[in-house]
């Protein structure tokens, strides 16, 4: 394997074709179904699928027997299914399957974009491509095929590869189990799973994700009146729905420290993950927290860097991501409001059942409502996390060499605070599979927020790593 040739091929394809394709992809406001209930009528999801399908079909002619299908189950978001048979030789190693995963749906716009940027306005500044979805993770299908094409360019053999690109990940992947079951016979039994939807601690080395937190959450509403009333008349008599809501949230979170209170939402952190957190903190230093756009004078919850890593990867944490029942400031009269609602996003440890956490959360919030208020918690999601199995010696060695070849630095290992439901799903279905989970979401890339960007050099290097590892997987499988 000529690693310099892989580098040259992948870099050239990114510059000539992939970046222009991602520019057009960013223009499409294909928000995930949770954020666009009329996604079918709007047609943006179909536009994104068509863009990727057209480009991918133009490249599949390089592979003997390759096929692409846009699978559409009734009432569900579409899924792109690509099957590239084993290439190069016959015999040993050709009966194994590599699954490469990504998604094409996007988070909503979010406010706060710079004046010259926007979620659906692709802008290239230096080595960064700004806009929603390029890094999270529209690049996945392009990077996956670029890796296979780089092997084809050298005539290097590889096992059968299946590429799955879903359109519901940002809504919790609730459609994906139906597709996995529908396609189970065609997917087979994966030996290696590659996911490009994760993060990286910096852009200087390859980062492998060792765990992902689960997530549960929904809408908590406290109602005290049938309609709003004069605050001067009612305050002191009618309890404020906002005060009751604060009291109820106090059952879940310590308002002073941000720590989650119920022991039922914690797990014992494996010693290996604690050691990896310590090493990651040593590598990253203050980049653990100074990648975030703090206001002047603001500081993180603790100065202990390893604890910060563990907080965002193995401990439950709460975020209030939306508010209802409150008028804008410029139209807020002297009224005691009838109700207050908040959207809760609770990240839970990788090995805690998301369904168990969701059930517990609903019971905790709804029980014994203060003053007899009407308290409801509508559970929206309860996805479990994932803890990676130990790397096989061949994969650990392949990752180490690939990071040195394409990044010029050792590989690093760290858990991620976000969720990729597909990983937990595959981990349960295929416990013998090996996992290569990585991505381009590094410092300041700000997925889900304003000014999201794709760091183009990292996208290229990750594609090179995938090519290298897929080739080495075949070499290992051929020994069996």
TrEMBL record:
The entry's keywords: Hydrolase, Metal-binding, Protease
Pfam families: M20_dimer, Peptidase_M20
Biological process, per Gene Ontology: proteolysis
Keyword Metal-binding found: yes
Domain Peptidase M20 dimerisation intervals: 211-369
GO MF, one annotated term: peptidase activity
PANTHER family the UniProt entry points to: BETA-ALA-HIS DIPEPTIDASE, CARNOSINE DIPEPTIDASE 2, ISOFORM A
Designated name of the protein: M20/M25/M40 family metallo-hydrolase
Organism of derivation: Luteibacter yeojuensis
């Amino acid at each position: 394997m000529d690693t310099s040739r892989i580098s040259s091929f992948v870099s050239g394809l990114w510059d000539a074709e992939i970046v222009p394709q991602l520019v057009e992809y960013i223009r499409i406001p294909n928000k995930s179904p949770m954020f666009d209930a009329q996604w079918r009528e709007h047609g943006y999801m179909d536009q994104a699928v068509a863009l990727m399908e057209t480009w991918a079909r133009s490249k599949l002619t390089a592979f003997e027997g390759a096929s692409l299908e846009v699978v559409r189950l009734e009432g569900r978001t579409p899924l792109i299914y690509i099957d590239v048979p084993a290439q190069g030789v016959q015999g040993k190693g050709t009966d194994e399957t590599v699954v490469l995963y990504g998604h094409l749906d996007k988070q909503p716009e979010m406010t706060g974009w710079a004046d010259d940027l926007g979620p659906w306005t692709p802008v290239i500044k230096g080595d960064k491509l700004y806009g929603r979805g390029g890094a999270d993770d529209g690049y996945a299908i392009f990077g996956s095929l670029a890796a296979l094409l780089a092997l084809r360019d050298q005539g290097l053999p590889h096992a059968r590869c299946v590429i799955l690109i879903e359109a519901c990940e940002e809504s919790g992947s609730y459609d994906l189990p139906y597709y996995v079951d529908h396609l189970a016979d065609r997917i087979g039994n994966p030996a290696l799973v590659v996911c490009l939807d994760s993060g990286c601690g910096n852009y200087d080395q390859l980062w492998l994700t060792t765990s992902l937190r689960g997530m549960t959450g929904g809408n908590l509403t406290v109602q005290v009146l049938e309609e709003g009333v004069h605050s001067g008349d009612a305050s002191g008599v009618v309890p404020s729905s906002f005060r009751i809501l604060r009291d109820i949230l106090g059952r879940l979170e310590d308002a002073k420290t941000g720590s989650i209170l119920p022991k039922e939402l914690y797990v014992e952190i494996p010693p290996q993950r604690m050691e990896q957190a310590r090493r990651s903190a040593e590598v990253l230093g203050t980049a653990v927290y100074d990648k975030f756009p703090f206001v002047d004078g603001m500081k993180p919850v603790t100065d202990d860097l390893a604890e910060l890593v563990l907080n965002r990867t193995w401990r439950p944490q709460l975020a209030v991501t939306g508010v209802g029942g409150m008028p804008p400031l410029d139209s807020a009269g002297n009224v005691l409001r009838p109700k207050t609602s908040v959207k809760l996003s609770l990240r839970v440890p990788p090995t805690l059942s998301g369904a168990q956490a969701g059930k517990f959360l609903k019971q905790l919030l709804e029980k014994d409502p203060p003053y007899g208020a009407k308290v409801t918690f509508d559970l929206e999601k309860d996805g479990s996390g994932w803890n990676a199995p130990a790397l096989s010696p061949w994969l650990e060695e392949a990752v180490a060499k690939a990071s040195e070849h394409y990044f010029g630095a050792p590989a690093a290992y760290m858990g991620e605070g976000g969720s990729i439901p597909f990983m937990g799903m595959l981990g349960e279905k295929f416990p013998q599979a090996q996992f290569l989970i990585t991505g381009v979401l590094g410092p300041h890339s700000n997925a889900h927020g304003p000014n999201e960007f794709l760091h183009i050099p990292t996208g290229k290097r990750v594609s090179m790593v995938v090519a290298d590892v897929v080739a080495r997987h075949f070499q290992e499988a051929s020994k069996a």
